[in-house]
Amino acid sequence: MSSNPARVKIAPSLLSANFARIAEQIRAVEEAGADWLHLDVMDGHFVPNLTWGPKIIADLRPLTRLPFDCHLMIDAPERYLRDYREAGADSITVHWEACRHASRTIQQIKETGARAGISINPATTVASLDELLDDVDLILVMSVNPGFGGQRFIPRSLEKVRQLRVRLEERGLDCAVEVDGGVGAENAAALVMAGADILVMGSSIFAAPDPGAALREMRGLLECVR
Questions:
Q1: SS3 (DSSP) at 29
Q2: Whether the Cβ atoms of residue 14 and residue 211 lie closer than 8 Å to each other
Q3: Is 180 assigned a catalytic role?
Q4: Residue 157: predicted pLDDT
Q5: Which residue in 40, 69, 137, 197 is the catalytic one?
């Protein structure tokens, strides 16, 4: 089972960018053809790291017209949905593991006007999402344990992407499958063939001397996927 390569989006992850040069790096990937910008929000509780709150996202918003794909790796995300939407989030993804009432949280995201996403950690099964598939706009498969950039891709994530694609197509659902963690040239094509629609890339883009060139190279690689 595969998705259509023409639909595949590349979402550079700003967690891996150089914040001393953030405007320059955002401009470079936007000019190179990035589709979204991925913003990882971490609270030091749900994951062992801290990143940014709504103010930083609001400050970044004027730097680009690219959609902001906000990934909330935080406890009780329902408390902050409106804040992130008002800061400029176009998509808001929460973790299944962090939501006491996931269906209600998804509905609350939709009420803000943002795309609603649900994410699962590597130890969470695809079957856990069966009751939510009809409600979400995207599903984010974590292919590393969340909390830090630069980790190695967990190979069994490919099978989870395949399982999701089968489930979605069996139900006739128009829901995107996103993958985040260790995504790069060595596995991007396989993920697309497995059914991924959105590839989040951090170190593979921003650790390169020229992030724009790295993104264009990745786009060329994906255009060869059949």
A1: helix
A2: no
A3: yes
A4: 97
A5: 40
